[in-house]
Amino acid sequence: SSLDNKIIVWINDESKQIESIYFHDQDIYIDGEVIAKITDYYVNSEDRDKYRLASQLALKQLLNYPDTAKYPAISGWKFGIEEDGIIVQSNVTAKNALGVEQENIFQVTFDKDDNIISLIVDGTEYIK
Predict the structure, then answer these.
(1) What is the C-alpha radius of gyration for the chain, rounded to an integer number of angstroms?
(2) Tell me: the pLDDT tens digits for 69-80?
């Protein structure tokens, strides 16, 4: 998936020149020619912060006890760019309606104008 940030660089054994660069399954650079910009597929750190905050604000509306919400460090978040827009995945631990701490896995999708077009928590879609 585009949420796994893997870059593959192929180097010619003899000439030590870069032959190709792939980001996920996308061709970025082949035989001396730039095919696409990595920024077409990669969410930079400034945007990661923006989408992380917007995701937390959206989830706050769904939680029974939003003040108890705990999110992982940035390394516990996944970001990707797909046809639908920007995908954000992570988890939140918060007290449920019974007052018991529970971990919830979520995915938020933003359109190209940064509006939330999908919010899924533990398999249930709240915004379509």
Answers:
(1) 18
(2) 999 999 999 998
Burial 55-73 (b: 16+ CB within 10 A, else e): bbebbeebbeeeeeeebee
| Non-local CB neighbours of 25 within 8 Å, separated by 6+ positions | none
User: Which ranges constitute the DSSP H helices of the chain?
Assistant: 45-60
Instruction: Give the predicted TM-score (pTM) of the model.
Output: 0.77
CA dist 56 to 34, 37, 107, 119, Å? 36, 29, 11, 11
Give the separation between CA 110 and CA 99, rounded to whole angstroms. Answer: 31
